[in-house]
Write a structure and sequence with these properties.
There is one protein chain. A 6-stranded mixed β-sheet has the order 2-3-1-4-5-6, with helices on both faces. The protein has one domain: Rossmann fold (3-Layer(aba) Sandwich), CATH 3.40.50. The termini are far apart. The protein contains 6 helices and 6 strands; from the N terminus they run βαββαβααβαβα. By secondary structure, it is α/β, with parallel strands linked by helices.
Length: 204
Amino acid sequence: MSDRKSPVTLKIILIGSSGVGKSSFMNRYVNHRFTNMYRATVGTDFLSKTINIDGEAVTLQMWDTAGTERFQSLGTPLYRGAHCCMLVFDVTSAASFSALEEWRKEFLIQGEPQDPQHFPFIVLGNKTDLSHREVSVSKAQHWCGQVGADYFEGSAKEDLDVEEPFLKAARGGLQQYKKHTLENTGHFQITCKQPRETRNTCEC
């Protein structure tokens, strides 16, 4: 019997307004491809990639959700069980940035993470290759500081700084996975290891 462990599977959710480039960023990271032909995601897109995090094999299951209102009802079953959430916006669209707070709240309500206060959020600003940006780095970082999220930005089109946010998501997700797995295991051991007191023998 082999001692080789299967990779830990982590569920990473990408959410944000339609057109910010969630599919493009995910495709660039996994398939190293980019297309200028925009196709709105209908429902969800799913890609997976196995990577090595500090000597440990981890399989990322990345779910790109549709940003349009009529598909938001899919969020309820999809968000649950996520180990990390990536909030994606377009640095040339102030509206897509402003919408992140609602997306974040929606995820916390629908996803019901075990520890909302410490759940890992990654904020990702896409399209830094464009010059007419409407959201400054300092503004994005300020909001991230308020909600306790890590901030990254890059360009799926130009393949700029694509890998780092996913690695951070993997590390945060792995910590989340281990924390709750150990907590659940510890709780099981505590409840099961308590010996019953020996009953007094009947003196009748």
